[in-house]
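> run fold Dienelactone hydrolase
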Amino acid sequence: MYFKFTILFLLIFTAGSTTFAQKTSIKPIEPDTSTLTDAKRNRLVPIAIYVPGIETQKKPIPVILSPGYPGKNIHYRYIAQNLAEKGYLVVTIQHDLPSDSPIPTGENLYQRRLPFWETGVANILFVIEKLKKKYPNAEYRHLVLIGHSNGGDISMLMTSKYPDMVSKVISLDNRRAPFPRIKSPRLYSIRSKDQIADPGVIPSTAEIKKYAMTIVKTETNHDDMGGAATKAQLDEINSLIESFLHK
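> ok
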C-alpha cells in the first residue's frame, strides 16, 4: 500500500511540475513589423504581424487590429499577443502616417473624418490580400475586426461597406461612426467610463436586442484602453474580447 501511494504521489508531482514548467517557460509572441507599399494608392502601410505558434491551430482565424489615433503598428500589444497566444493570426495596422493631415476635430466629425476612415478601410482590404498570399490557410471567412476609438470607427465603416467579409467586430469605445444595424456580422462593443459617443452611434436598447449586439460598460478610461490602463483593467478587456470570440 505504501509503495502504491508513493508511485501515485510521484506521478502527480511530476505531472504538476511539468505543467508549471510549461507555463513559466512560455514567451510572449513577438511581432514581425514591416512597412508595405500599396502601389495603386502610392501609400505606405506599416503593420505588425503576430503569428501563432506551431502548437496552435494550423488554420488560424485572422484578426485585424486598428489602433486609435494616432496609434502605431506596435501599439495594443497586450491584445495582439494575447490573441496570438490563443491561436489567432493578428495584424495591427498603422492607419495614420506622419505625412497625413491631422485628423479633424470640432463639429460635424462624421463627414469630416469619413475620408480618413475610408483610407483605413482601403488599408485593411490591401493587408487582407497580402495576408492571403502569405498565409493562404488562414480562415478568412471568419475574419475578425477589432478597433479602438478612431480605429473602431474604421472597423464600423469597413463592416458597413463589406459585411460579408467580416465574421465578428469588436469596438473599443468608437465614438463617431454608427454601428451598422445588421445581425451579421456580430457586433460587440467595450465602452469606457469617461467618454460618450455621438448621437446615433450606439444602437438603442431595442436595436441592440433586435440585432443581437452586445455592449459592455467598463471602469476603464477611453485613452487607457490603448495599453495605459492597470493590469487588471487590461486583463478585463482581454477577457471580454475572448469571451465574445468564443460565442
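The beta strands are 32-38, 43-50, 62-66, 89-93, 144-148, 168-172, 186-191, 214-217.
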